[in-house]
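Table 4 source record.
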Amino acid sequence: MPLRYIVRRLGVFLIVVWAAASINFAIPRLSPVDPIREALLQVTSMGASQAGMDVLVKTFAARFGLDQPLWKQYVNYLIDSARGNFGFSITFFPTRVIDMIAVALPWTIVLITVSTLLTFVIGTILGAFLAWPRVPRVVQLIGPPLLTLSAIPYYLLGLILIYVFAFVLKVFPLGGGYTVGTTPTLTLPFLIDAFHHSILPALSIVLADLGGWALSMRGMMVTVQGEDYMTLAEAKGLKDTRVFSRYAIRNAILPQATSLALSMGRVVSGAVLVEVVFAYPGVGNLLYQAIRTFDYFVIYGIVFMVIVAIGLATLILDLLLPALDPRIAY
């Protein structure tokens, strides 16, 4: 691979990260709400005087650097983000943002990674079978209902699953990442409890995404069946299983791999609405709470982390695709 190509892709990656980070800085500040005042109103008594409140707001604004000119705040934001230092949470001061993310991130990574990989494998195989003319009829009957589920949003499926399996049947808990009052530890009972709580959130993601993966794979399989190499393989008398696995799936799966890489880049952001519906202690729920309370620095930390993750996934994909398919290099 030419060095100039690698340098160009690295340059594009840095520009994209800078542009997205700049937008991330600007959007929360479009709101007229003062985050310091909002946070103080939640913890101070109703009898606090206006003068006393103003003094507190100025003190904390200086502590968070929000009293500086906007351009200086922007420069400090870029420098701190590049160093991975997102400062302190406004709502939960003096808790550091990086510590809050570190607590929530493992929950999201496990939930979204397992759900995404499971959906990718099942959806890709199902889509390949749906497009292949010589498969059992029962597979073709299963396809349409699963494809229909792809039109239902995560959160709506989550609410339906909660009502059926948690409220009516009482098979799974209503929400949360573990039983209330339990201390998170790496012990077998806690891991079983956490797994039990994660089934419904994971199921809502799998059911909502399965149809999309299957539909895209089905489309690619239909496309490759008209290619010359497929006609040649069938003319040579190769077995159906060999033609299916070595010629059809192998050439149709490349766009699926591209989509998977981009999906894995979004793993750190979590499925925000799913985590909110199930009160799951992941990054998505943390981001929602930060937006609701105008906690600038938590928003900056989470969104910047998502920007870098998606950018890195795209960069790695750009560098790997020519190796996976030499035709792309042309």
